[in-house]
Amino acid sequence: MRKGPREGSFVFDPRKTRECLVKWCISAEVTFNKFDDPLFAPWMMRQELRNELQSLNSRICLTSDLWTSNKKLGYLCLTAHYIDANFILIKKTIAFKDVKYPHTGLAIEEVITKCLIEWGIKEKVFTIILDNASNNQSSCDLLRESGHSDMLFGGEHLHVRCCAHILNLLVQDGMAIAHGTIDKIHDLVRHIISSPSHIQAFNEIAERSGLPSKAGLILDVPNRWNSTHNMIMVAIEYKVVLKRYAEEQLEHSPEDEE
Fold it and tell me: Origin, by domain of life (predicted)?
């Protein structure tokens, strides 16, 4: 096959490559265990990263989060943050592991410890950012007990509480005054996106109202306050459409004063 003239030299963009890979995984519904395939390992440059982490003269800070998939499987993601020899802040995701049920502090601590040992950085950890759940506190207590001698200040500052989680709790508390209205919007949006026919009915009303159709609507989740904000902003823009849809489908919707 003949190739046309090149417009310029090829430049590898790791950020763009990662973005394209993530989009492909989502679109093709690639299962997580596919990345354990030994033929995929060379793409990940694992050994190079392992050598870099082990040769650091600085400490490593970790961030981690645990969530449950729609198949009720628990997953933990672990990201390492560090400053390299050129004094550049680097972050690398070093683990994406399943967590056995129940998700106790011991189960979380076992996954994190195993990961740190695999990478050979257990003695280099300074802090780990987790949310305020009790099982995370228990896991940090266990990590502190097992690695006390290797940690700065005996692990006194190991657990850094996630500011984003704290902010979410504050905002959720403040939104309690509008809890009833938000619940009505949430239930109505969930009804619309529950089937293609409902979305089609919504878009037909939107077009008659002079508004662009939507491929889908934003449904909020409890632990992301910004998702509630985004849902409300769309609901305000499509207020007339939502009200007419609710009337036609015999669903509840916020009153005008709400």
Answer: Eukaryota
Strands 74-83 and 60-68: antiparallel
b/e burial code for range 134-149 (CB count within 10 A of at least 16 → b): ebbebbbebbbeebee
User: Could you give the percent of the chain with pLDDT greater than 70?
Assistant: 92
Confidence of residue 1 (pLDDT cuts 50, 70, 90): very low
Residue that the structure tokens 């560090």 belong to? 82
β-pair type (74-83, 159-161): unpaired
pTM of the model: 0.63
What distance in Å separates the CA atoms of residue 172 and residue 182, rounded to the nearest whole number? Answer: 11
User: What's the CA gap between 246 and 254, in Å, rounded?
Assistant: 10
